[in-house]
Design a protein that fits this description.
The protein is built from 16 helices and ten strands. The protein has helices spanning about 1-20, 25-40, 40-45, 50-65, 75-80, 95-105, 115-120, 125-140, 165-175, 185-190, 205-215, 235-245, 255-270, 280-285, 305-310, 320-330; strands spanning about 70-75, 145, 150-155, 180, 200-205, 225, 250, 275, 290, 315. Strand 5, helix 11 (about 205-215) and strand 6 form a beta-alpha-beta unit. Helix 4 (about 50-65) crosses helix 6. The protein is globular and about 75 Å long. About 35% of the residues are buried.
């Protein structure tokens, strides 16, 4: 039995060594393989015998080496390499391995969750996060899981007219009208942003801010992106593009515990700065009538904010500080 165990472990090491040799020129994939080997995920998917895992790992490495593949649907990618359009679906062994490779290649590895959809059970927030992180990982390498749902809402976002998405943004900005961008548009017709001199892009949580800015300021309003609560793939992808283009992102959200949690995500992932979203802003805002409910969340950008909110015990939504936000979005304000 000991001899069999030694032989089995040697076969596993040889399998990973051969796979590592294939990706030696791709450090991100080398890190992915090291993670698979250390976590034992491949063993859990295939059982203890190395021969059963060899084909799965070899095929996974082949697909991983093809990443990124801009503008390709997940089912199309699966069919192209495996002959099965569902091989990369959530819960499938190949999909479980490759979503981690996509996260590594796309630079998304700190955010990808190890929790599976089945593990999420009936808790809606973990389920949402598991689904969203999977979509984000694939989107980071250009693969589309759900390319038309949950588009991101924008106003006056400046872009060159050399792509279809850029032309759409220019037309809407000239009229001062809000516009929605899907993941499909952002990946298949990637816009090239022409940032203002100050490079400031404002981000809000609620569509009411976008509607009010369009109504009052129109085409003169500073560029505005609305994430509409928990940011979906299109919103996250757009913010990543803007950040990579050198935009200076400024975020405002609701002064409640879910709003602070969303703010932590935006600040951490997209290096945004607070926009009237600190303890001093909360303390000087008009009184609200909605009691603060739920579990306390610390604000990563202002350690005094959670204390101020806890003492006052009132939630303040963006609609209650709308005048502040619209004044900042006016053309005379930097």
């Amino acid at each position: 039995l000991r001899g069999q165990h030694i032989a089995r472990e040697a076969a596993w090491r040889e399998m990973f060594e051969q796979a590592a040799a294939r990706v030696a020129h791709r450090p991100a994939l080398g890190a992915w393989l090291a993670e698979l080997q250390a976590s034992g995920l491949l063993r859990r998917l295939c059982g203890p015998e190395a021969p059963a895992a060899t084909d799965l790992l070899n095929n996974a490495v082949t697909i991983a080496l093809a990443l990124p593949v801009p503008g390709v649907a997940l089912s199309e990618l699966a069919a192209r390499f495996t002959g099965n359009g569902h091989a990369l679906d959530a819960g499938q062994p190949m999909g479980t391995l490759l979503v981690r490779a996509a996260a590594r290649v796309g630079g998304n590895e700190p955010e990808i969750k190890s929790q599976s959809l089945a593990d999420a059970g009936t808790h809606l927030q973990p389920l949402f996060e598991a689904v969203q992180e999977r979509r984000d990982a694939w989107a980071s390498v250009g693969v589309l899981c759900d390319e038309l749902s949950a588009p991101v809402l924008v106003l006056n976002l400046p872009a060159a007219a050399d792509t279809l998405t850029g032309k759409l943004l220019q037309i809407c900005a000239a009229a001062g009208e809000p516009c929605r961008l899907s993941t499909r548009q952002l990946l298949r017709h990637r816009p090239r942003f022409e940032l203002p001199a100050a490079k400031a892009i404002f981000i809000c949580e609620n569509p009411a801010v976008v509607a009010a800015a369009a109504n009052r300021l129109g085409a003169a309003a500073h560029p505005l992106v609305c994430i509409e609560g928990q940011p979906a793939t299109a919103a996250r992808l757009l913010l990543q593009m803007l950040s990579s283009a050198g935009a200076d992102l400024h975020y405002h959200g609701d002064f409640d515990w879910p709003g602070i949690a969303i703010g932590n995500l935006i600040m951490r992932r997209h290096q945004a700065r607070p926009w009237r979203f600190c303890a001093a802003d909360y303390q000087t805002a008009a009184a609200g009538a909605l009691p603060l409910a739920g579990r306390r969340v610390e604000a990563s950008w202002d350690l005094a904010l959670a204390d101020a909110m806890s003492r006052r015990g009132i939630a303040l939504h963006e609609e209650q500080v709308m005048e502040w936000l619209l004044n900042d979005l006016a053309p005379s304000r930097a």
